[in-house]
């Protein structure tokens, strides 16, 4: 009897049913439209049309966008309506004057809300079971599929509902409850992203991309819910959501017991939490402002301006919300305290008191090192990851390479100031140490090419090593050409294409390509000129391996020349009607390639030269690149299309002598 008294009051139940029951009915009808009705509509169509329509392989992919809207909106709306009375002074005075304990009110409202969310899902599940008895869709309507859909839907809606109830107990305004609930859903991932994107300005080498790529989006319930169609919840995720439901329920109950009736309609229901709200908003606004100005202006002065400007705006907006008045612009004391605290924290970061920037493991403690341009390839992502010789592997275990990478890392740290002030042409380094202890140390740097030239002995030794070449060139791992059905050479600057199907030709070409790769020097590997063509291996199991025909591969050129295949394999001077070259003007580089009038008038630019001789055109093709850092801009006018030139650049290192003489 006491439990019944605590959990159920007939009057409250009847009132809730009259005022809120419509949400449950609307939720049921919406779910019915989104799932069972869609199945029936698709199933009753013509068989031919149905095969193109019913592509969902689980229930979450039926009207997935609409299901996500329901999951995101219904629980929050329900919590807003159920606990509206705690935010309206007249209602809260009346309700709390009744002979019902607060605990009983809280439990009954929450249980009623849970019923509104859970009962429609159970009815939909029952309907799906009935449908499964006369529709053969085992991949969609099995008992396990229906149970998974029901369980995941209930878990997410209850989690969001309890989060909204939790927020309701700490604010005195329904509008603010709704806003703060959605902010809470995005808060962990959003704050993590803001912190990571801002600390990179203070911590040299922090691997922001690596940390952001660690599926941080799964911290956002709405995003995670949108992934249920192809990525089911894990046991750990289910446990964590259930744990948060219990925590929200318990903390909200404690807060409801302690909140004062007279604080209805106040922004924050507990005075002690006003500073948390005030400085929390200020801090987040500061991070957002710093990120915006730091990324758009790439300047320390603008970064600091962003921090100061945005934090002031955030502070006074939050203060206006707390005090429900715009007359707060004279209250600077609180902001001064905040600013002083942030300055102390910033100074601590600048002195690197944790030793983060200079931390490098000893070589003997390293199991292997990931060393690549980005962290995207850290897990060996490729089209055919199950086959070892298809993947690019950027892990280094050779002792000499490990020593060279550590030594290069030490030089990057030692030369931090000169690197940050270095040239704009840079290379990215993603470094991840896997230690014998099982721990990881991850860093990311952008270094100018001039720094690499200065430390050619270290970087050159790494990229010239056999381990590096086998890591990044999949064709080196093909030892038996019997598995190769065809090799296709496809020009990347035209329609030229040649295929090798004769086994003898395939074997010879493959051997020469492997030799070219293994003989590449540091200068060859650092060459930014465009490749002649892309090379595609078609294997007997219908899989593919890719490589490139670089301009430094003279043996490939000679082999194709012997067979009179060069003109079929790449763009040659025979394909060019003429070319026009001009010394680069940075102000107009992109306009040359962007606007039609500039493209058509390029050959009329003062100071340009026209090239028509075959040998000179061939020299230009060998020297030019898509890289926009070249000193000269060249436009190739095709023999068959003189109105759409191909724009490239030539750097000072590769420019033919006849061009240098005419344009300098």
From TrEMBL:
Q: Per the UniProt record, which residue ranges are transmembrane?
A: 20-45, 65-86, 110-134, 146-167, 179-199, 238-256, 276-294, 300-322, 334-351
Give yes or no: UniProt keyword Ion transport: no
Record keywords, A-Z = Membrane, Transmembrane, Transmembrane helix
Which superkingdom is the protein from? Bacteria
Name used for this protein in its record: Multidrug ABC transporter permease
Query: Which source organism does the UniProt entry give?
Result: Anaerobacillus alkalilacustris
